[in-house]
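Feature request, filed as a ticket because there's no other form

It would be nice if the structure record came with a short human-readable summary line next to the tokens. Right now we just get the raw output. Example of a typical job, pasted below so the devs can see what we mean:
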Amino acid sequence: MASRWPERLWIVRHGQSAGNVARDLAHNAGVTHIDIAERDVDVPLSELGARQACALGDWFGKLPEHERPDVVLSSPYLRALRTADIVRECGGFSPDAHRQVPDERLREKEFGILDRLTTAGVAAGHPEQAEFRRLLGKFYHRPPGGESWCDVILRLRSALDTLSLHHAGRRVLVVSHQVVVLCLRYLLEEMTEAEILAIDRAGDVANCAVTEYRLDAAAGPNGVLRLHDYNFVAPLIEQGAQVTSMPDAIVAAR
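Raw output as currently delivered:
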């Protein structure tokens, strides 16, 4: 029986965004709010983020044509779409790859009333939510109007079904966000809550870092995707692009 999984799957966090930079400034200043003018969906890449994306495109471009991504799926958020565009512009895709497909199921975790607040901002403005998160943990805590990690996982289960139905045997690049990278690992590797949160505590997913899975076609009736690399930043280092791993617009709700 043919495998239902892609031959290779790369999951990449977008390049550094203006939101990453603003969040770091707010955190260092100890203020409660992050200064971002745009909607989260419209936050652009920083200049460094664009360089990171091109470094990644150059790395993919050094692979033989038959090993480069030929299917590209992206979060609809501008920073992810632009990352995918720049990877293409810098030669990272197979010549016959279609334009990336925006998929809203790959969007950033939604923060609801905690959007654009630092940890200090959540404690000052919504102490009850800080306490709920302490009691429930980030995996299950859902702020009003927002999502828990479990909510993200539920929509990603559907996205993986689409991947298996339409892209079996292909080489698929997914461009998305930090929580999505982690939640996809949770699903693909059949982890527990404790296992994925331990990985999260060990460090942030770097901007434009590569998480790669390769198909083990001999494992079971449908094959299995095996983790080959996680948080792989050599493509950036090789091109002299600074490695960054700041969270996006909010700290506490992650």
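Something like this underneath would help us a lot:
The two ends are 40 Å apart (CA to CA).
The longest strand covers residues 224-232.
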